Amino acid sequence: MKNLQLGALICAAAMSLAGCFGSTETVPVNLDFSRTNYGFINSGGYAAGSFFAWNKAQDELVFLGNVPGFEPPEPGRGRDVVASYAGGLEIGGEYATYGRLARAKADAWVRRISAFEIKNGTRVAYSNVYTKITDHLSKDMADGGSLIEEWGISEAIGDPDQRFIIVRDVTYGDTIRLQVDAEAGADGSLSVPVKDGSIKVRLNGRGLEGIAGDNIEITFFVYVLEPYWKQEDGVKTLAVRRIKSEDISGLPGLLRRVGVDS
Questions:
Q1: Which of 27, 54, 103, 104 is 20 to 30 Å from 236 at the Cα level?
Q2: 3-class SS at 197?
Q3: CB 87 within 8 A of CB 39
Q4: Where would I find the beta strands (DSSP E) of 6-156?
Q5: Which residues lie below 8 Å from residue 243, measured CB to CB, with a gap of 6+?
Q6: Lowest-confidence region among 8-22, 151-165, 171-185, 207-221
Q7: What is the pTM of this model?
Q8: Which helix (DSSP H) or strand (DSSP E) does residue 216 occupy?
């Protein structure tokens, strides 16, 4: 495989789609927050402990803030790892109207030709997540704060359409680079043959270019949580628990909208 710019992958994915549907326009394909076997690509620069409200009825995700206690590991010698694409891309232009069929073909193509190399990677799966959340809320309340109300936690108790998401299993590293089997022109584009001629395709969107630094959050997994009241010895306290059955396949799209909607 060759280390190429992300545009080459978009071109290759578009080639597959163009061969199926035909087009005369540039095809935008967005990989921000796509899923890999190491978690979601951290296109938003979120830290471990990032906390979101998820309104399932309105299909809306809102970033609320950071729960403390999720300190990054000490910089050290990790290892280079290769993550496999697992889904979550977004197709724009005329292909957006083809829905599942277009996404399935693009997903299959991207999965076949690509991988993501994480330099100096260290995976950290944080524990005691529930306690970290409730301790933070309890301390805030003791200090006169109102996060429980501001974050809508009390209101969400007992509502199946209200969930919360926390970033808690993070792979740290220095960069994530795309490896792709494809040939690109000097400008990063490809001339893709279609039924009546050819189209020129290139990357639209932020892609992976901004994910680089020293021991930063590269990819992450999440917990989906619900709050509830816990009764012990006649005392009612706030608690949270993980909901394992929630379908989070749409999370990449929700995360892509957070920067606009939050």
A1: 54
A2: strand
A3: no
A4: 29-30, 35-36, 39-41, 50-55, 60-66, 79-83, 85-87, 90-91, 114-125
A5: 163, 224, 225, 226
A6: 8-22
A7: 0.84
A8: strand 212-232
Rounded to the nearest 10 degrees, the angle between the axes of helix 99-113 and helix 6-21 is 130
Helix (H) or strand (E) holding 129: helix 129-142
Please classify residue 195 by burial: count the beta carbons closer than 10 Å to its beta carbon, then call 0-12 exposed, 13-18 middle and 19+ buried. Answer: exposed
d(CA 54, CA 258): 11
Half-sphere exposure of 114 (CA within 13 A, CB side): 29
Note the pLDDT of residue 169: 97
Spatial neighbors of 144 by CB under 8 A, at least 6 apart, are none
198 SS3 class: strand
Distance CA 89, CA 60 (A): 18
Candidates 131, 77, 79, 115; CA nearest to 239 is: 131
Q: What is the SS3 assignment for 130?
A: helix
Supply the DSSP symbol for 204: -
Q: What is the pLDDT of residues 25-35, one digit of tens each?
A: 556 677 889 99
Distances 27 to 12, 121, 262 between C-alpha atoms, Å: 11, 32, 28
Q: What's the start-to-end Cα distance of the chain, in Å?
A: 38
